[in-house]
Write a structure and sequence with these properties.
Blueprint lengths: L7 H16 L7 E5 L2 H12 L7 E3 L8 H4 L17 E9 L3 H12 L5 E9 L11 E5 L6 E7 L5 E7 L3
């Protein structure tokens, strides 16, 4: 295990503040879309805390992953977009940005549903290690972890977030 400790609730509060500022820059209220599963948790909680009336959507990366033949369909959730994507301003939320491959798959999935006017990416943690040219518009924290470790968001029964670092320390 790693000695890295991240306060997921403090990072969530940073994302909430950033979202309040970001929403003020739009002429119309953008739609929230979470990446299954941690991003969906973020989108659901942000929708409530920001008092947004419209239901948040969820995006699955399963069908567009470049490692689909090895992983198959994951149990992380299905894509549900309870609104028309065409011409919509979207804020995609995810818990951890790493290589960028999941986000590439999610964007491909999103464009299967239409052509949004704009897409912004907001994440709790950017852990570096990018393999594709994908960057977050806002990240509450940036950390460096070895490739042998993973960072996983968990949600307790009370809705509170926490992070777990898994894997071998080099």
């Amino acid at each position: 295990m790693s000695s890295l400790t991240l306060d997921a609730e403090a990072l969530y509060r940073e994302v909430l503040r950033a979202m309040q500022q970001l929403l003020a820059t739009y002429d119309r209220v953008p739609r929230l879309v979470g990446v299954a599963s941690g991003g969906v948790w973020l989108a659901e909680r942000l929708r409530i805390d920001l008092a947004l009336a419209d239901e948040a959507g969820s995006l699955s990366s399963a069908m567009h992953r470049d490692d689909f033949s090895r992983r198959g369909l994951s149990a992380s959730g299905q894509t549900v977009l309870p609104f028309d994507v065409n011409g919509a301003d979207l804020i995609v939320l995810d818990d951890v940005l790493y290589t960028g491959r999941t986000l590439r798959a999610v964007l491909n999935e999103l464009f299967d549903y239409g052509r949004p006017a704009s897409v912004k990416l907001v994440v709790l943690v950017d852990r570096g290690g990018r393999e594709l040219p994908i960057q977050a518009d806002f990240a509450a924290a940036r950390v460096a972890l070895p490739a042998t470790q993973s960072l996983a968001l968990a949600r307790g029964d009370d809705g509170q977030f926490s992070f777990q670092v898994q894997g071998a320390t080099p």
